[in-house]
Design brief:
Blueprint lengths: L10 E5 L5 E7 L2 E6 L6 H15 L20 H9 L2 H4 L3 H15 L21 H9 L5 H14 L3 E3 L5 E3 L24 H11 L4 H12 L3 H4 L7 E2 L2 E5 L10 E5 L2 H8 L19 H14 L7 H14 L4 H8 L6 H19 L31
Antiparallel strand pairs: 1-2, 2-3, 4-5, 6-7, 7-8
Helix pairs in contact: 4-6, 5-6, 7-8, 8-10, 8-12, 13-14
Length: 393
């Protein structure tokens, strides 16, 4: 089973200044080697398992990162972080979320107190970690505001860590959550691009309507699924003319099961690609995509079509916009996308009417002239030729 199926442990992901994702093998707090960039390649798996076998066998020196050897100093920032990493709120998080938070905490612990200072934040007394020092940790990521806000978000969770009190009831290790006194950057933006029909047409013409790239696009266009759900979608989710699946997001905390009618166009596109396993979308090595792997692959397919600004999420956003313009109601959108508004009364309405509302939403999908590039179930199918000789894999 590959990284395309699950997120393998010990993988560190870093974004370079050129917006390229770099992968490293990290074991017991130490980076042991860089991995090939393509997580679906045979070279990646060979190098990953070579490093993992060496690390687990003790064939390479495995030690905590510099400055983090041994037990944490009592009352230090690292002491508080270790308590948080052992707490129930942290243990209840998904493994992927845990890994991300560990990486964020590690980076803060290893940050020097001041540029060029040998002292690091790990050994700073908890009481000294005041608003000014929290702002320093935040501002070390000011060039990437969202990463800065993620640091602040994690710090707010860390400061809420409790321990058993004298009466047996949990009490906070640090009485005041000073991280709440620090403002996040919260850079306002319009978010992801909203894809337009002409951009979808450009993508389909480039890759060819029978390509795997267009299969992935059709799944997104006619279901509205997030890439985390599209990567898992397969024949086992189909019941007649409907897909039924539990969505990946919040699957443990607040699970939601969607029933989505199979759009006739999507039905025909899927029919061109015989499933080779439990997933409609598979890598060139016959393995299911990981969530990140599929998201990156779709972004690459957009880039090959000259649409570098488009991603899987731009299609989801474009579909929601399209349906709104075609007079779909809020309830229909809630039904298709599985959105919640937090009102108790609508929880029960949604449970009873979700499938019906989703069907009404599906009937309103009309991508205009661009739709002529894909097959119509009531007409003969003429397949446009791909404009690129390079086949998408």
């Amino acid at each position: 089973m590959s990284m395309a199926t699950v997120d393998l442990p010990y993988i560190e992901r870093n974004m370079s200044r050129h917006k390229r994702v770099r992968l490293y093998f990290r074991f017991d707090g130490r980076r042991l080697g860089r991995l090939p960039d393509d997580p679906d390649s045979e070279q990646f798996f060979r190098e990953y398992w070579r490093l993992r076998r060496m690390a687990e066998a003790g064939a390479v020196p495995v030690a905590p990162a510099a400055g983090l050897a041994g037990a944490p100093l009592p009352g230090s920032f690292r002491f508080l972080c270790v308590a948080y990493l052992s707490s129930d709120p942290f243990r209840r998080l998904d493994a992927t979320t845990q890994a991300k938070r560990r990486a964020i905490i590690d980076s803060m612990l290893l940050d020097p107190v001041r540029p060029g200072d040998a002292r690091i934040f790990a050994d700073m007394p908890m009481q000294a970690l005041d608003v000014a020092n929290i702002e320093v940790l935040r501002d070390r990521k000011k060039d990437t505001p969202f990463a800065a806000d993620e640091r602040l978000k994690v710090l707010r969770q860390v400061f809420e860590t409790t321990r058993p009190g004298r009466d047996g009831k949990p009490e906070k290790i640090v009485r005041e959550n000073r991280a709440l006194l620090v403002k996040p950057f919260r850079i306002r933006s319009e978010g992801h691009h909203t894809i337009r029909p002409e951009e979808l047409a450009q993508y389909i013409r480039h890759h060819g309507v029978r390509s795997k790239a267009v299969l992935a696009l059709a799944v997104l266009m006619f279901t509205g699924l997030r890439v985390s759900d599209a990567s898992l979608l397969g024949p086992q989710h189909r019941r007649g003319d409907e897909f039924r699946l539990r969505i990946f997001k919040n699957r443990n905390r607040a699970p939601v099961t969607l029933t989505i009618p199979v759009h006739p166009v999507l039905d025909m596109v899927i029919g061109w690609h015989k499933p080779r396993g439990m997933n409609y979308l598979m890598t060139g090595f016959g393995r299911p995509y990981s969530i990140k792997g599929l998201g990156n692959r779709i972004s690459e397919w957009f880039g090959q079509a000259g649409l570098d600004h488009c991603t899987a999420h731009t299609v989801r956003k474009g579909l929601a916009t399209l349906l709104s313009e075609n007079e779909a109601t809020d309830s229909m959108l809630d039904g298709l996308f599985g959105w919640k508004d937090g009102k108790t009364s609508k929880i029960y309405t949604r449970q009873k009417q979700q499938a019906k509302l989703a069907r009404q939403a599906i009937l309103r999908i009309d991508w205009g002239e661009m739709g002529n590039l894909l097959p119509h179930p009531d007409e003969g199918v003429e397949i446009p030729a791909a404009t690129s000789d390079k086949k998408a894999i």
